[in-house]
């Protein structure tokens, strides 16, 4: 199974709606494609004990590893302060994501 860039972006936008961001109000969704062409999604989950929250990219990588994936090939990240506003913002990869991707090669 393969997925195009647009589908990966849409998956990231869709999972963003599940983010738990009561403190910042900044909801982020991430979708990664693994080496087998499978899509794995994650969203940010904030915690009152800052900085113990989970970023969207980390949760997407965790979902990939839990499903048996071992490498990301491409990823898409979207965020914004208000899901209902329709203001989608493409997000750069976090340094955490880049570090994890580097270690998993």
Descriptive notes:
The chain has 105 residues and is an alpha+beta fold. It has one domain (5-103): Cytidine Deaminase, domain 2 (3-Layer(aba) Sandwich). Helices cover 30% and strands 23% of the residues. It contains three helices and four strands, in the order H-E-E-H-E-E-H. The protein has helices spanning 5-16, 56-66, 95-103; strands at 27-34, 39-43, 72-80, 89-90. It has a four-stranded antiparallel sheet. Strand 1 and strand 2 (39-43) form a beta hairpin. The longest helix is centred in the first third of the chain and has 12 residues, at 5-16. It is globular, with a radius of gyration of 13 Å. The two termini are 21 Å apart. The relative contact order is 0.21.
Total strand segments: 4
Largest sheet: 4 strands, antiparallel
Order of helices and strands: HEEHEEH
Average pLDDT level? 80
Number of domains: 1
The name CATH uses for the topology is Cytidine Deaminase, domain 2
Say which CATH homologous superfamily is assigned.
Cytidine Deaminase, domain 2
Number of helices: 3
Strand content: 15-25%
**Which CATH first-tier class would you pick?**
Alpha Beta
* Side-by-side strand order of the widest sheet: 2-1-3-4
Query: What gross morphology would you assign?
Result: globular
Structural class, from helix and strand content?
A: alpha+beta
Radius of gyration, in Å, reads 13 Å
Distance linking N and C termini: 21 Å
State the share of residues found in helices, binned by percent: 25-40%
Task: Based on the coordinates given, report the CATH architecture.
Answer: 3-Layer(aba) Sandwich
Q: Give the low-pLDDT segments.
A: none
């Amino acid at each position: 199974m393969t997925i195009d860039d647009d589908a990966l972006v849409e998956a990231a936008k869709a999972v963003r709606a599940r983010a738990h961001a009561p403190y910042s109000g900044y909801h982020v969704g991430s979708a990664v494609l693994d080496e087998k062409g499978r899509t794995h999604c994650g969203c940010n989950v904030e915690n009152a004990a800052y900085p113990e929250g989970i970023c969207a990219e980390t949760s997407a990588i965790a979902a990939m590893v839990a499903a048996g994936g071992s490498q990301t090939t491409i990823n898409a990240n979207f965020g914004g302060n208000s899901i209902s506003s329709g203001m989608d913002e493409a997000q750069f990869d976090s340094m955490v994501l880049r570090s994890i991707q580097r270690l998993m090669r």
